[in-house]
C-alpha cells in the first residue's frame, strides 16, 4: 500500500501549461500527489526535516505543568514525524537519517498506518549484503515495529525502552496511524523538565 504520486503530465490542469505544473529540485523533477483533488508536490527530504524541527511537544511538557510520573507519551512525543512509504529507496532513507540526525524512520501506507520501521542497523545490514541502496526499497529491509499509544505512562515507556534496548518508538492511534515518536532523550528531558523547570527546545 504505497503512496500514489501523480506526475503533472498524468493529471494536468487544462488551465496551466506543463511547464508551470513542474517543480525543479536540484535539477530533478519533484514527485506530485493528489490531495483533495488538487495536485501539489510531494515534500522533499529537506522539507520533511524542516517541518519536524518546528513542531513542539505537549504544552505541559514545556511549561512544567506535570511531573515526569504524571506525563504520558502525548506530552513527550514529536508530533510531526519524518516517515516514508514502502517504495522509498534506502538511499533516500539514509539521507533523511543523516540530515535529520535520527536513527530510525517509520514506514507507513497511504493512510499513514504504520507498517514497518527502517533503522541504521537495517541499512548497514543491506550494505554488508552487497545491496545498492539506490535500488533497494524500504519494503525489502524494514522490520516489524514496536509501537505505543499516546496514553502510555512515562514509567511504562522506560520499562519498554530498557527491556528492549530501544532508542525511538513510534506512537500510533487506535487505527494504527502514526501520530508521533518518543525517544530516550524525551524521557530524560521529561525528568529534567519536572526537576528544573521548562527546557529550551532541542
TrEMBL record:
PROSITE patterns hit by this protein: CBS
Domain of life where this protein originates: Bacteria
Gene3D superfamilies xrefs: CBS-domain
Chain ranges of the CBS domain: 77-133, 141-199
InterPro entries for the chain: CBS_dom, CBS_dom_sf, Diverse_CBS-Domain
PANTHER family: CBS DOMAIN-CONTAINING PROTEIN, CBS DOMAIN-CONTAINING PROTEIN CBSX3, MITOCHONDRIAL
Protein name: CBS domain-containing protein
Organism: Candidatus Manganitrophus noduliformans
Taxonomic lineage: Bacteria, Pseudomonadati, Nitrospirota, Nitrospiria, Candidatus Troglogloeales
Amino acid at each position: 500500500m504505497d503512496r500514489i504520486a501523480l506526475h503533472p503530465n498524468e493529471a494536468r490542469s487544462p488551465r496551466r501549461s506543463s511547464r508551470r505544473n513542474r517543480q525543479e529540485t536540484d535539477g530533478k523533477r519533484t514527485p506530485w500527489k493528489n490531495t483533495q483533488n488538487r495536485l501539489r508536490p510531494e515534500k522533499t527530504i529537506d522539507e520533511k526535516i524542516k517541518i519536524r524541527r518546528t513542531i513542539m511537544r505537549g504544552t505541559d511538557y514545556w511549561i512544567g505543568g506535570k511531573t515526569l510520573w504524571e506525563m504520558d507519551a502525548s506530552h513527550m512525543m514529536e508530533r510531526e514525524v519524518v516517515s516514508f512509504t514502502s517504495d522509498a529507496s534506502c538511499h533516500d532513507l539514509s539521507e533523511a537519517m543523516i540530515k535529520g540526525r535520527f536513527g530510525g524512520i517509520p514506514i507507513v501506507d497511504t493512510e499513514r498506518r504504520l507498517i514497518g520501521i527502517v533503522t541504521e542497523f537495517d541499512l548497514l545490514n543491506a550494505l554488508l549484503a552487497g545491496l545498492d541502496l539506490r535500488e533497494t526499497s524500504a519494503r525489502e529491509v524494514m522490520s516489524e515495529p514496536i509501537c505505543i499509544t499516546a496514553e502510555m505512562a512515562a514509567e511504562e515507556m522506560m520499562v519498554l525502552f530498557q527491556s528492549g534496548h530501544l532508542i525511538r518508538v513510534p506512537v500510533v492511534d487506535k487505527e494504527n496511524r502514526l501520530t508521533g515518536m518518543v525517544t530516550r532523550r524525551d524521557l530524560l528531558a521529561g525528568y529534567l523538565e519536572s526537576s528544573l523547570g521548562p527546557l529550551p527546545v532541542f
